[in-house]
Amino acid sequence: MIVDRLSHYKSYPFGKAWQLAFDFLLSLPQDAEEKKYPLLGDDLFAIVMRYETCSSETAEIEAHRKYLDIQAVITGEEAIGWCQADELEIDSPYDASKDAELYKRPEQGLLRVDLFPGNFMTLFPHDAHMPSLMTQQVPVFTKKVVVKVGMHLL
Prior knowledge:
Layout: E1 2-5, H1 16-27, E2 36-38, E3 44-52, E4 61-63, E5 67-75, E6 78-84, E7 90-95, E8 100-103, E9 111-115, E10 119-123, E11 127-133, E12 141-150
Antiparallel strand pairs: 1-10, 2-3, 3-12, 4-8, 5-10, 5-12, 6-9, 6-11, 7-8
């Protein structure tokens, strides 16, 4: 897991795909259309979405195998719960078509990261994460982008 400012992305030497991802992120306007943006076909793409944040009781904790996630809030805010995937009990086995494995909620041990515009969180295959969480006691509408980078590109 990496949590940092978008402006610090060059601190991580992950190559051309990383550079393309951040070129896209840094050029993305607040009014970007909610859709999938192909950057290098199915190997590197972004998804812009808008939703209402929720409590941890209704959120799912997941991990991916094929893609690294770079998550960044465009407007609004959200918290993301994080822990090592190998510490969790599987709830739904890996689904290759969704590149997702779902886990049962741990009773404790989730690290919470609050994301705001200008920050990013990178999640590797060993990073289980629970996105879309409220940062306060009430939900807010959040617009976010998730860049999916094929692990083979790093």
